[in-house]
Design the sequence.
């Protein structure tokens, strides 16, 4: 009986080593929570910017100037949310990798990055084209960001925690739903990038991180 237990333990160890070598397991749930909070703050600031734009246009100010100002501020807000999220993800993932005794950057990390980068790059260029054309096309930016981000998560899920695949599918679903309610794009953006990240981050922390 003891020999059988030893064999089972050995098999578990081999399986664990194989999983660690093929998947990026240092992704922290706390980084998801913080990213969600940043997104909600960004959505609130975006709401203020859009409301100010509509108010100024209503009072007869120069439309072109106000439009460009709104776009610039919106891009700055999104960039701020992205940069803070990346820095936070790096900090918590680095901390977790040290606790697990793993390297943060290796060939698995590179494969995860490349598989997520391609959909994100395509989505970013597509969103820029929507902003370039302006008008009603602008309303498709929020749905597009959600859909391409979801595709990036699904594409990269085979190289990290499998749960991230479900987050990606939910992001895609919310993005598609947003396509039919374009005037509420900011709300869908807040749900997808804000609320979902907080829920997923809390779930991941409770499932994988709380005992570290």
Sequence:
């Amino acid at each position: 009986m003891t020999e059988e237990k030893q064999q089972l333990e050995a098999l578990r160890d081999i399986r664990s080593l194989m999983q660690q070598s093929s998947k990026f397991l240092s992704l922290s749930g706390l980084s998801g929570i913080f990213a969600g909070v940043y997104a909600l703050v960004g959505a609130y600031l975006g709401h203020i910017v859009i409301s100010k734009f509509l108010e100024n246009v209503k009072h007869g100010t120069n439309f072109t100037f106000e439009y460009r100002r709104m776009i610039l501020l919106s891009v700055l807000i999104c960039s701020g949310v992205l940069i803070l999220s990346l820095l936070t993800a790096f900090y918590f993932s680095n901390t977790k990798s040290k606790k697990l005794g793993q390297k943060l950057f290796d060939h698995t990390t590179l494969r995860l990055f490349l598989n997520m980068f391609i959909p994100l790059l395509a989505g970013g260029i597509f969103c820029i084209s929507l902003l370039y054309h302006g008008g009603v096309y602008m309303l498709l930016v929020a749905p597009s960001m959600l859909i391409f981000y979801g595709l990036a998560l699904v594409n990269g899920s085979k190289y990290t925690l499998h749960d991230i695949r479900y987050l990606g599918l939910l992001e895609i679903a919310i993005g598609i739903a947003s396509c039919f309610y374009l005037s509420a794009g900011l709300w869908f953006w807040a749900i997808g990038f804000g609320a979902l990240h907080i829920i997923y981050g809390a779930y991941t922390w409770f499932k994988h991180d709380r005992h570290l």
